[in-house]
Amino acid sequence: MMRVLIVDDHALVRAGIALLVGHQDDMEPVGQAGTAAEAIKLACDLTPDIILLDVTMPGGGGLECLPKLLAAAPDARVLMLSMHEDPNYVRAALGAGASGYVLKDAAYEELVDAIRKVAAGHAYVTPALGARLAVRPEPDDDDELSDREREVLSLLARGYTNQEIASRLFVSVRTVESHRAHILVKLRLSTRADLVNYALETGLLRPETER
């Protein structure tokens, strides 16, 4: 019986996946988490076999908490759930230790199949992204941060939370979380400490001037 931990910031998504998993003869949903911090605690307490992990979440996305999750549950295998079809996200996830990557609009049958394959020790990537993964784009403008992403990065490096950044920039928290995920992928980084180091090295982290 595969013990599955479901990590997503949307309660309805978690409930739907738990229902799906619970209907399988070889799977059991053992816990649900809506934030990275909750996921790490449950991973340590429940020792799941499989962790279904959303890429973008409040308080730190899946890519950022993935190393901590694997440290908390070293025997678990992580299957990323994402709405991002950019192959760079897949590369970042697999590079950080994930065993698979499934798009959120995948059919239920595909998710169940992916869980079984990952549990058996195989890597799994949504077929629609497989061919695109084989072609690595040239490191050109696609990897360059936009002005807004640089602004978000600067604020993150100064220690502002997603909520505080959203308030300062007059955007939604979800927009900030999306920018944060794009920044990590583009820069091939995984933690806030990495972001701070990058900001220092590139001169983005400087004392704020009086407005």
Description of the structure:
- The longest helix is centred in the C-terminal third of the chain and has 15 residues.
- The protein folds into two domains: 132 residues, Response regulator (Rossmann fold), CATH 3.40.50; 62 residues, Arc Repressor Mutant, subunit A.
- With 211 residues, it is of the alpha/beta class.
- It has a six-stranded parallel beta sheet, with helices on both faces.
- The chain has ten helices and six strands; from the N terminus they run βαβαβαβαβαβααααα.
- The C terminus is likely disordered.
- Helix 7 crosses helix 9 and helix 7 packs across helix 10.
- Helices cover 51% and strands 14% of the residues.
Task: Name the helicity range.
Answer: 40-55%
CATH superfamily of the largest domain: Response regulator
Gyration radius (Cα, Å) is 18 Å
Strand order within the widest beta sheet: 2-1-3-4-5-6
Which strand-content bin applies to the residues?
A: 5-15%
CATH architecture of the largest domain: 3-Layer(aba) Sandwich
Overall geometry comes to: globular
Number of domains: 2
Largest sheet: 6 strands, parallel
**Overall number of strands:** 6
The stretches of 5 or more residues where confidence is low (pLDDT under 50) are 207-211
Span between termini: 59 Å
Integer average pLDDT: 83
CATH class of the largest domain: Alpha Beta
Q: Which class do the helix and strand fractions yield?
A: alpha/beta
Write a concise keyword list for the protein shown above.
211 residues; alpha/beta; Rossmann fold; Arc Repressor Mutant, subunit A; 6-stranded parallel beta sheet; 10 helices; globular; disordered C terminus
